[in-house]
């Protein structure tokens, strides 16, 4: 077995421990989120998020998460997830049941795999009987996202003003996150940053309020105009030096490789999702040795496109003939995390790639066999262990 296959076995063993290392802190114009203090955050829907619960990492402490929809008048926050074992709280709201289904605790922190805009609201973390975190969260709809590429001459959205109820005035603008690192080094790449819709409201006889995410402001002022988030992309080129490699070795690095084969029918559409990617992380795709950039795909009307909701984390392919056969690779933070073989029925990969595929399958089989042998060995030890007060015959 090749050295590469052995590496895959080791990486597979680390998958569960490492894939939860992707932390998304959200975006806020106010102060940083401090323990026990209210914090307002904006996120993009359809991308995984993690809300931190201070002091929850101590083992044996009961951790619970509560949720309150701003539309639920005269109601208190409801516990929908806790660390108390299999007895889950009864939930009367179908919305809370859906939220619990796509959420999990990661060292006491709340991880939501695919939040929707309807999941906006107040999230509270309690450790024991103490409330340690309040998050007013606005999940903004990526379906309304405005995407602009600097190299196409596109500009970002400008500020707009609006008249609201009772003579209030609002200014809508985009609050930008920092630029992400270049998606790869050594050749021309791309980088992106995410913009969140914020509004600043001035009411008669009241001082100007602090800017808040548009979804939160709209709960109080329904006449606030619709404005979505933004995604800004530009080309970049950085050397593969020590500084770049160090930037890619942070907590978001996931040593995980997923291999999948697709055999779509004619006129079908396939969506290839890059593992562990999101709009908050640098991601790029390759078709064979060719890099698929936002710029090139925006220039031409092709059968390939990058999903804007995840910032390119999903590659969309449409098939117009029966002879399509290609390998696609995706990278997150400069690391290969996904490989996809896409072919019409009957198409076969090139011999070199076929051998590469067999190496992956071999690694999976060997890894599973080692795990089963380990379980059998533990079972034998348990059956032979002498219990206190028993007599060996």
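Sequence proposed for the structure above (393 residues):
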């Amino acid at each position: 077995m090749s050295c590469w296959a052995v590496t895959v076995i080791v990486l597979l063993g680390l998958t569960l421990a490492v894939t939860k290392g992707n932390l998304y802190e959200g975006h806020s114009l106010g102060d940083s989120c401090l323990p026990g203090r209210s914090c307002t955050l904006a996120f993009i829907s359809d991308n995984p998020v993690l809300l931190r619960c201070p002091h929850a990492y101590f083992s044996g402490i009961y951790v619970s998460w509560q949720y309150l929809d701003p539309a639920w008048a005269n109601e208190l926050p409801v516990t929908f997830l806790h660390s108390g074992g299999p007895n889950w709280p009864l939930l009367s709201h179908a919305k809370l049941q859906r939220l619990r289904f796509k959420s999990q605790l990661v060292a006491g922190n709340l991880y939501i795999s695919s939040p929707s805009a309807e999941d906006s609201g107040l999230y509270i973390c309690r450790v024991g009987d103490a409330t340690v975190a309040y998050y007013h969260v606005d999940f903004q709809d990526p379906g309304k996202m405005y995407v602009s590429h600097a190299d196409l001459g596109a500009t970002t959205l400008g500020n707009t003003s609006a008249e609201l109820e009772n003579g209030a005035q609002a200014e809508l603008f985009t609050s930008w996150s920092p630029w992400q690192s270049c998606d790869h080094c050594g050749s021309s790449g791309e980088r992106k940053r995410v913009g969140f819709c914020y509004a600043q409201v001035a009411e008669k006889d009241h001082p100007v309020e602090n800017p808040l995410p548009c979804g939160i402001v709209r709960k109080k002022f329904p006449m606030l105009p619709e404005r979505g988030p933004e995604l800004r992309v530009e080309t970049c080129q950085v050397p593969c030096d020590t500084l770049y490699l160090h930037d890619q070795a942070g907590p978001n690095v996931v040593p995980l490789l997923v291999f999948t084969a697709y055999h779509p029918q004619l006129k079908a559409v396939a969506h290839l999702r890059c593992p562990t990617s999101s709009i908050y992380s640098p991601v790029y795709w390759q078709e064979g040795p060719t890099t698929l950039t936002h710029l090139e795909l925006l220039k031409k009307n092709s059968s390939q496109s990058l999903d804007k909701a995840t910032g390119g984390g999903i590659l969309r392919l449409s098939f117009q003939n029966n002879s399509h056969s290609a390998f696609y690779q995706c990278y997150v933070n400069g690391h290969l995390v996904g490989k996809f073989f896409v072919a019409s029925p009957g198409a076969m990969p090139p011999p070199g790639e076929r051998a590469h595929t067999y190496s992956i399958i071999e690694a999976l089989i060997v890894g599973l066999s080692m795990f089963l042998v380990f379980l059998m060995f533990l079972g034998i030890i348990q059956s032979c262990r002498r219990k206190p007060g028993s007599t060996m015959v």
